[in-house]
Amino acid sequence: MSVERIQRHFRESAELKQAALETLSVPIAAAIDTMFTALANGNRILACGNGASAADAQRFAAGLIDRFERERPGLPAIALTTDTAVLTAIGSSADTFDQVYAKQVRALGQPGDVLLAISATGDAANVAAAIDDAHEREMIVIALTGSGGGHVGEALLDTDIHLCVPSERTARIHEVHLLTIHCLCDGIDAMLLGED
Fold first, then answer.
1. So where are the chain's domains?
2. 5, 14, 54, 183: which has the fewest C-beta neighbours closer than 10 Å?
3. In this structure, which topology does domain 3-193 adopt according to CATH?
4. Cα 148–151–156 angle (5° rounding)?
C-alpha cells in the first residue's frame, strides 16, 4: 500500500471539510435552531437513510437519546432504520421498499416534528418518498446530501433546510455528513446546557 495514496485521502478529506465550512456553517446553524425549537416544543426528530446513511441516522438518534459529549436528559429521536420487523414487513414485496421510511413517517410523524433525511448521492427514492410524507404531516425536513442533492434536493420545500456537501465523491460526502451530525448534536447540547 502506498503511503502517498493514504495521505491523499487525508488531504482530500481536509480540503473538502474546509470547503464545506464555507458553504454549510450557516445552514447547519439554522438546522440546529430548527431542531432545538422542535424539541423545546415537545416534538421529536425522525431520521432515515440507507447503508452508511442509515448508520448516520442511528448515530444521530443515539446522540440525542443517550448523550453526545455531556450528560443531560434524553431527547426524543427515532432512527427509522433500526426496526427489522417493520423494515422487512414494509419491504417484503418488490414494490414497497420505496415506502419503507414514508410509511413510518405517516405512522409516527406529527406536525412540528423534524425529519432528518440523509442520502449521500441524493438519489435514494425511499428517502425522497419520506420527505413527501413528512410534508403531508406538516413536518420540517433537514436533508443531508451531496452530489448536488439529486431527487432528495428536488423534494425539498423552501421551508426545509438543505445541507448539501459540495462533492461528488461518496466517501468524502459521508465524512462531512458525520462531522455535520456531530455539529448538530453539539449545537443542540449547547442550546440546552450552555457553552462549555
1. 3-193
2. 5
3. Rossmann fold (3.40.50)
4. 90
Between CA 72 and CA 119 the distance in angstroms is: 29
DSSP state of 164: E
Q: Which residue(s) pair with 46 in the sheet?
A: 78, 115
- Helix (H), strand (E), coil (C) string for 1-49: CCHHHHHHHHHHHHHHHHHHHHHHHHHHHHHHHHHHHHHHCCCCEEEEC
The 3-class secondary structure across 54-80, one letter per residue, is: HHHHHHHHHHHHCCCCCCCCCCCEEEC
Of 37, 70, 40, 66, which is closest to residue 196 (Cα–Cα)? 70
Report pLDDT digits (tens) over 78-130. Answer: 999 999 999 988 888 767 789 999 999 999 999 999 999 999 999 999 999 99
Residues of 35-62 as b/e, b for ≥16 C-beta within 10 angstroms?
bbebbeeebbbbbbbbebbbbbbbbbbe
Name the nearest CA neighbour of 165 among 185, 182, 148: 148
Tens-digit pLDDT profile for residues 129-142: 999 999 999 999 99
Q: Say if pTM beats, i.e. exceeds, 0.70.
A: yes
In which band, very low, low, confident or very high, does the pLDDT at 144 lie, cut at 50, 70 and 90? very high
